[in-house]
Amino acid sequence: MADFADTRVSLAGQGTIEAVAVTTAVSGACLASIGGIQVTVRTVTGLSFSVGDKLLIARRGSTYWALAAYSAAPALPPTPPAAGDPPVTSLGDSSPPPKPTTTTGSLVCTPTATSTWRDGSWRTDTGSSTSADTFQGKYGGSSLGRNSGFAFYGSKPRSLSGATVTKATVRLRRLTSGDYGKRSPTLRLVSQSTRPGGFPTLNESTAGPALGVQGHVSPSEVTFTLPTSWGQAIVDGSRGGLCITVSSDDPYIRLAGRSSWSAAWTLTLYWRRSS
Prior knowledge:
By secondary structure, the chain is mainly β. It has 2 domains: 4-70, CATH 2.40.50.140; 103-274, Jelly Rolls (Sandwich). Helix content is 3%, strand content 37%. The chain has one helix spanning 228-236, and strands at 17-21, 29-34, 37-43, 54-60, 63-70, 102-109, 113-118, 121-122, 134-137, 147-152, 164-173, 186-190, 202-207, 221-226, 241-244, 253-255, 267-274. The strands form 3 sheets. Strands 7, 8, 9, 10, 12, 13, 15 and 16 form an 8-stranded antiparallel beta sheet that branches. The radius of gyration is 45 Å and the shape is rod-shaped. The protein starts with 16 loop residues before the first strand and ends with a strand. 30% of the residues are buried.
């Protein structure tokens, strides 16, 4: 074997160095490669290693000793865990959860019925009891009772169940009846989604838009924005319709029903949904 002292490579002052075993130890020595040069290296008693293992070398005078050995990196990937072994936990950062997908849209709901209640029954003198105009209050000097006008929306709004309502609007048009000045109806939410036999259940209230009579005072027609919570209640099914009514006789107002105007009481629900 070649003697490392015969080479022209100087390792003085390097302390311990690293070599690769070219042979196993025989009679306390082996052949190792340092920087591409094969040299003879003495091995300490009991040191065991294989060809290709890395050796930790120290110099004493002109003799080089292998003090320790450690295996080379495996050429093949480690064997996957057997069935039933606990899963390996990654120590790296986990991937962030995917962002939710948000869908938005609008749903147009025409009323299934527009009707007016007066004196204990649904009026039929102004047309079909399910598409008639809607009245509020009492005509001055009339011996008849007060009017309450209703619009019912059936089951269509509940097709958005689970969605969040972001806006709700309704189309209203005032027709001739009473005076021509601008008057504001009082809007109420109704529990029923279809017209019942008796007087519907009234709930929340809000002031409606100031409208003049069509052809006389403007505006007579409007797309009115309802409280967003009203639209949500109709979608969730706890409410089903709208109403105009007052506890006194005035203001007496007539708003178009389905038979007078195709867009009458059309409810539009704007919504979003995340998944």
